[in-house]
Amino acid sequence: MTVKQVRVFALVLWTSLLTSAPGHARTISPLEGLEALRRGFAGLSDFTADITQEKRLSLMKRTMVMNGSLRFKKPDLFFMEIAPPFSSRMLLKDSVIEQVSGKDKTPNRIVLPPEQGLKQWFVKLSAPITSLPDGVDVQADLTNAVYSVTISPQGKGQVKDISILFLADGTIKKLIINERNGDRATMTLKKVRRNVGLSERDFRLE
Amino acid sequence: MKDFIMPLFKLLKYLLPFLLLSACATVPTPPLDFRPGAVVETLLSAVSLSIHSTERNMSASGYLVYRRPDQLHLVVLTPFGTTVLEAFAMGDRITLLYPSKSIAYVGRFDELPDKGGLQGWSLMRWVMDADPHEGNLQNGTVKRTGKLGFSEKVVYGNGLISSKESPAGDRVFYGNYIAVNGVPVATEMDLRNQRDDRIRITLSEPEVNTPLDAAVFVPRLDGMTIMPLSAIEGL
After folding, report:
1. Cβ of B61 and A181 within 8 Å?
2. Residues on chain A touching B81 (C-beta within 8 angstroms)
3. How many domains does chain B have?
4. CA of B222, closest CA in chain A: separation in Å?
């Protein structure tokens, strides 16, 4: 996994976690959209959700669909499980990713740079957002009670933009990643439950 | 980077043979409702990949497209669905495309690093030589001289190839055959090489012999930095 890949991974994770937060604005400027996410996230200790992940490949007239679930607990625990036939489990503890697939018992382990760890991202969220982050363009809107915040990294990297759709009560609806090659990855969250009292025992690969 | 790439090399070395064997292992078998003589000309499938090597382990989901005899497009995904790697093979040429780095490594199979002591293209051709037994053998083991000129051991079960073994000790096992539009396809493939590295591939909902656009097998290199395959080992 390259450094850029890790950054994308961290950005995706960060933004998806943020979307557990409620938003209040009727008319959303980019800054207001981001701040609404951050503000709402302050009241979150953990959440769980079922997910459907779709990968649309631009060159092929077919979409790959995977189902599973995810869990998060502040400040640095994230777990995602994909159901058969693509069975896999991924656990992120701050800056260490462990992943097992199918019947495998030995996890694949990836250590991220310390600055990419989950804790670091939450440190950045400790203060209100008063200016747009460097290196990204942000768009936000509110349509039929669904908030949409789209973050577009500048430059010509792999990711064209990341969009998060969520309701005012903080329920995440979708996470959409558009790649510059035309591919699109969509994660739809269902049955989102916040602050359910997850413990570290809920974040094990075995 | 190197730790990540090397398992992918191993994957690429073995994935093509797997696909080709899927195409070749179309022996009529009683348990399957098949069309006699039907073979895999094209294959599209979501895949789960698992690699256990002496160096490290790796697992991922992805997608592949194959056209007989030697065209392949493999997409390997991150847990969030973005693309880690695209591999394109056509003839003796292979392109490894890393979108996150905007780099494409281009060259011939024999220019790939060969840490496992195997030459990917030769292995691919070896696996291609998997025609049904001339005597319509249903169950048994055959030792034969393959089209590449060396001896090999092929095991048949219910008319389908269940395993092969090369003189170098590489072994590949095939399981969970299904019939797709009458064409038998092994949806589980497990390869163990002489170093006891293990690569397992599972196909999900494969589509067989559907028309494919030629563009599917052509890497899009716009905006990519083109590098020789020999450069990849130094990264």
Report:
1. no
2. 53-55, 177, 185-187
3. 1
4. 10
Give me the sign of the Cα torsion angle A74, A75, A77, A82.
positive
**Chain A, window 26-55: residues with a beta carbon less than 8 angstroms from a chain B beta carbon:** 53-55
Q: What is the spatial distance between Cα A6 and Cα A122, in angstroms, rounded to a whole number? A: 17
Round to whole Å and give the CA distance between B13 and B185. 20
Closest CB from A55, A181, A186 relative to B99 = A181
Instruction: Supply the CATH classification number for the domain A3-201.
Output: 2.50.20.10
A147-152: Cβ within 8 A, 24+ apart: A147/A23, A147/A28, A147/A33, A147/A36, A149/A15, A149/A19, A149/A28, A149/A30, A149/A33, A149/A34, A149/A37, A151/A11, A151/A15
CA distance to partner chain A, nearest, from residue B188 (Å): 11
H/E stretch holding A185: strand A184-194
Tens-binned pLDDT, residue by residue, of chain B (235 aa) = 444 444 444 444 444 444 444 444 444 445 666 676 777 788 888 888 877 776 666 778 888 888 887 888 888 888 888 888 888 888 878 898 988 888 999 988 778 776 533 344 345 555 545 545 556 677 889 998 766 677 889 898 877 888 889 888 888 888 888 889 888 888 888 877 777 777 778 888 889 899 988 989 999 898 899 999 878 753 3
Domain that holds residue B106: 2-234
**For residue A134, what are its two tokens?**
């460097």
Which strands form A88-93's sheet, in the order they lie side by side? A108-111, A96-101, A88-93, A77-82, A63-73, A46-56, A184-194, A172-179, A159-167, A146-153, A136-143
The domain spans of chain A are 3-201
* A1–chain B Cβ distance below 8 A for any pair: yes
CA separation, residue A69 to residues A20, A36, A203, B169 (Å): 15, 25, 12, 41
Alpha-carbon distance of B123 to B60, in angstroms, equals 23
In whole angstroms, what is the distance from residue B45 CA to residue A60 CA? 11
pTM for this prediction:
0.75
CATH number at residue B162: 2.50.20.10
Best probe of the B interface among A62, A92, A112, A180, by most B CBs < 10 A, is A62
Give B136-145's long-range contacts (Cβ < 8 A, gap of 24+): B138/B29, B138/B30
